[in-house]
Design brief:
Elements (H helix, E strand, L loop, with lengths): L8 E6 L6 H5 L10 E3 L10 E4 L2 E3 L6 H15 L4 H7 L4 H11 L3 E5 L2 H4 L8 H19 L6 E5 L6 H13 L5 E4 L15 H10 L3 E3 L21 H23 L2 H4 L5 E3 L7 H15 L11 H8 E6 L5 H8 L4 E4 L12 H6 L6 H15 L8
Parallel strand pairs: 1-5, 5-6, 6-7, 7-8, 8-9, 9-10, 10-11
Antiparallel strand pairs: 2-3, 3-4
Helix pairs in contact: 6-7, 7-8, 9-12
Length: 388
Amino acid sequence: MAKRGFRVMDSDLHTMEPDDLWQRHLDEPFRKFAPTFARAPEGPSNQPTIQIGTLTIGEMTLRPKSVHAAADLHRRSFARHPHYEVAAARGYDAQSHLRAMDIEGIDVAILYGTRGRQVLMHDDLDPELATALARAHNSWTHDYCGADPGRLKFAAQIAFHDVGLAVREARRAVRELGAVAVVGNPNPVNGRHIHDSYFEPLWEAIEELGVPVGFHPTGLSSLRDDIAQRLLDHPNGRMIGTAARNPMELMLAFASLAAGGVLDRHPGLRCAFLEGTCGWLPWWLWRLDETWEKFGPGSEVRISALPSEYFFRQCYVATDADEKVLRQVVEAIGDDNIVVSTDYPHSDGLFPEAINEFVSLEGVSDKTKAKILWDNCARLYPLATNRE
């Protein structure tokens, strides 16, 4: 398959998991804590409020104005193509995803969970339960990809509540289930940032496994440290918070990894920053370098290069398919470290025109488009890429 002459590997396409996934896949004795999902009658079906024992996850879904904004977007997305209705009726099963990939023109997709990330977005989750939730999700996703292992690959979910348990599940998911990445949470969990020494065993293990960490923000969250929650109770808070959260959380995540010394200590660790656009990157690299030159010499953790150098050596960023500033980004930083994401089947994606939108971007050469659509993603993820 090729889309207008280009092979396409989607760096970040999503599963939409069934509500009963955890009832079916959670190990005992955790099954009694399987998440339940409640949806407001006027809200979108894809954004429930999640209950796990006494914990509630979903700050956005608890506010009527936020629910209304999301429901309006959901209706408009479904109007774009009849396959949305078909996929929803089938529970977004693997066959409907493969059909969506055919419609969009995607050869290979790396699957990131939707509910799989959301159920972990609470600081107060019991660490063993959080890991059990991630383990069940990874087992389900492995089976899901079995519908076409050549086209469907997945990133493994881990819980950041306990580093030892996270290491164990990352190893299981990669070595036993064939995961090609590990999902990274850019937000602090229980006050621990990702460059906290507590997480050193995790970065060491993932570096050894030879897979990347795909840092991906999560909209449906009840984490205490989440940029968007500052705005939810204010006018147009959903819109402003959504615009701000993803790039800002990813900016801080990269800063932690580079200026906090993680990438210096783990030169084989690859990281991707997904679903947060790429237009922020040239300025942020300059800003971090400039600030490091001023404050770095007196800082407690030393690094051997400027923060920007770690990005070019070890990191990738995903562009939105219609990101019109991509031309300026390529002019500023080159085209070796950029991949593309369609975000299907989320409402704020562009299905079925995402790849058409990307290929039609002005001021970006076909050579650069080919690298972003396939070559760079094939370097990021460890999988066979000679598929025709």
